[in-house]
Write a structure and sequence with these properties.
Length: 267
């Protein structure tokens, strides 16, 4: 089991709180990787992890949090858990993702995701509340197969399910839609994407987690999304997500039901 995070020259000095929360996970990994461009400064707090650098000229944005550490792992059954450099996460997230990866063999698993099919022809490019799946829903509505897993919440991948050459060959604006790009390539390889409940053992009618609590107690953003658009966040994110999803219209399929009761992923 390995944990993976990526950052940029502009952000690495401020990722300490997010990295601390990764280090503090109750599940202890074999390695924690942090991927950086070769020109980035390396703060002293990174001595606790394994730093991977890549040439600035080869930058493919937030995809580095997956492809760089996956390239270091040769065991096809290795579990790779990715985290964001701007998100403090609850200490039980990694343990739950690791357990869920065993419960859903042959799938990538996460804690938040969305269905892309209806958005493919939508103008403007927006997702409706019922197209999101996550911890705001009643316990009985999860697990749920989705088109796209949202990386901010943490995702567990099996190394053997990843085609790193295909992932590196990111096209145009898809560089800024890494969640869609990764999920689309998984779909092409027949790898299911599943959103699971963080809290196990609750009755099916147990209420979901309120958003105020979810984005304070489980995930808490510690950098503004506008800090560095080369890694994530830009003013036209929804359009780029939709346009990237259109590249995978052959594998993003119509699904019955909806997330219901409002909400969505990271906002």
């Amino acid at each position: 089991v390995v944990f993976c995070v990526a950052s940029t020259s502009d952000r690495v000095g401020r990722m300490g709180p997010a990295l601390d929360s990764v280090i503090a996970q109750s599940l202890k990994p074999d390695t924690i990787y942090v991927s950086l461009p070769s020109s980035a400064p390396i703060p002293a707090f990174l001595e606790a992890v394994t730093v991977i650098t890549h040439p600035d000229s080869d930058d493919v944005g937030p995809l580095h949090k997956l492809i760089d550490c996956a390239a270091r792992e040769s065991d096809p059954d290795a579990t790779i858990l990715t985290f964001d450099d701007d998100m403090v996460v609850d200490p039980g997230v990694a343990q739950r993702l690791f357990e869920a990866s065993g419960e859903h063999p042959g799938a990538a698993v996460g804690l938040s995701g969305w269905d892309a099919f209806a958005m493919l022809g939508r103008e403007p490019a927006v997702l409706l509340p019922g197209e999101f799946w996550g911890q705001h829903l009643e316990n009985g509505l999860l697990p749920r197969s989705v088109d796209v897993l949202e990386g901010y919440a943490g995702v567990a991948y099996r190394r053997g399910d990843l085609d790193l050459d295909a992932l590196r060959d990111v096209q145009g604006d898809a560089r800024y839609a890494d969640d869609v790009w990764i999920s689309g390539h998984l779909a092409r390889r027949g790898v299911e994407r599943v959103v699971v409940a963080l809290r196990k053992g609750l009755p099916p009618d147990a209420a979901g987690i309120p958003f105020d609590s979810m984005f304070q107690d489980i995930w808490r953003q510690v950098l503004p999304q506008t800090a560095d658009t080369s890694l994530k966040g830009h003013p036209d994110k929804a359009r780029r997500n939709r346009d990237t999803a259109r590249m995978f219209r052959d594998v993003f399929v119509e699904r019955g039901g909806g997330g219901a009761r409002g909400g969505g992923g990271r906002r």
